[in-house]
Amino acid sequence: MKKIIPLIVLVLLGVLGLVFPSIDLSDLNKAEFDTGDTAWLLTSSALVLIMTPGLAFFYGGMVSKKNVISTMMQSFICMCLMTILWVIVGFSLAFGDDIGGIVGDPRTFFMMKGTLGNVAWGALPTIPLVLFAMFQLKFAIITPALITGAFAERIRFNSFMLFIILFSIFIYMPLAHATWHPEGILAKFGVLDFAGGTVVHMSAGWAALAAAIYLKGRKLQIHNPARISYVILGTALLWFGWFGFNAGSAGGANSLAAYAFATTTTASAMAAMAWIFVDIIRGKKPSAMGACIGAVVGLVAITPAAGFVSIPHAMIIGLVGALVSNLVVYLRSKTSIDDTLDVFPCHGVGGMVGMVLTGVFAHHNINPVVVDNGLFFGETKLFFVHMVALFAVSFFAFVGSLVLLKITDIIAPLRVEETDEELGLDVSQHAEAL
């Protein structure tokens, strides 16, 4: 009976499409769409989506050979589950009518209601509302996928699916609303997050740390990457897709998008080189793995700042992000915390570095949204706001994730049996193997 319940739930969700077809035309904002902006956001949405398969290769190449398929499958399934959730209620929870600055009204865009016709999101009047919804969906997809690296090689697949649903509803969507909705509590407080340093990387990073602590370590913590070539391919796809992630967050084909494009690739290049040079100082040979990890850390660190800081300051953000994350990876390795693929040191810490340095280097000349310049320019308000938000978001994401992990574990045990772990999750969870 247990095996049929998920299919029954899926069928019932499908029935919603018959009950709520959402075919009513809307003309609420008298929007005048710009073909250039629309084309760029369509392209950006596709670019952001390809980041999740890129992440699958990035993570899949790092784990042992017996866990490659299961690790990649965890990313792939996020594309499926999150799309269904987003269309039904997720977009409403993130961008629906404000409820207390914390979450959106789930009725606002239920089953994509109100997205058909000449209607746009208030802050982006030149693109269709449904395009904005689909662009934001891609962020909602990759965020839970990022977490998977922390508990790779030891989590039950069915339990994982339940956890990411709960995480998205109770952690990601409230953070997206609080940060990116005009009435959100963090937005009104003055927090700047251009493309998801707070919403995506900090939330995923803290959830990853919570999961690594809760699930405890693998029985054999031997790190033998299955395919370095997969890691290189994954990094290339992530870097390529990140231009949609950051430059697409400008909301149109404009000079800000071009500038965010430039800061993104500059920070990533700087971080990759910094990671290699730190490894050399420690007596290691310059490795493809190190270069790839460094490049991704640079992309993470620049994400919240991409459309708020100058290109020279993007170099500094990439450099500092790599140095701090590299140090935290080293320190983590000296503890008993088994964050398998160092999600917290790279994504969580990288996101926090980016958030702090946005408060240091943001300037009004880059983006008029910046009301108060960063600390580097002698103003303190933005920096103070970001430091307060840093602690608040960290506490919310970490404690909230621990609670959701416990709830999931009660409903469906998270940890695989020891024999299944030894056999490998590819075979024990999916009956497949390389």
Automatic annotation (TrEMBL):
This is Ammonium transporter. Keywords: Ammonia transport, Membrane, Transmembrane, Transmembrane helix, Transport. The chain crosses the membrane at residues 45-64, 76-95, 115-135, 155-174, 194-215, 227-245, 257-278, 290-308, 314-331, 343-363, 383-405. Its main location: membrane. GO terms for molecular function: ammonium channel activity. Residues 39-432 form the Ammonium transporter AmtB-like domain. PANTHER family: AMMONIUM TRANSPORTER MEP2 (PTHR43029:SF10). It is a multi-pass membrane protein. NCBIfam families: amt. It is found in: Cell membrane; Membrane. One of its GO terms (cellular component) is plasma membrane. Belongs to the ammonia transporter channel (TC 1.A.11.2) family. It comes from the Bacteria.
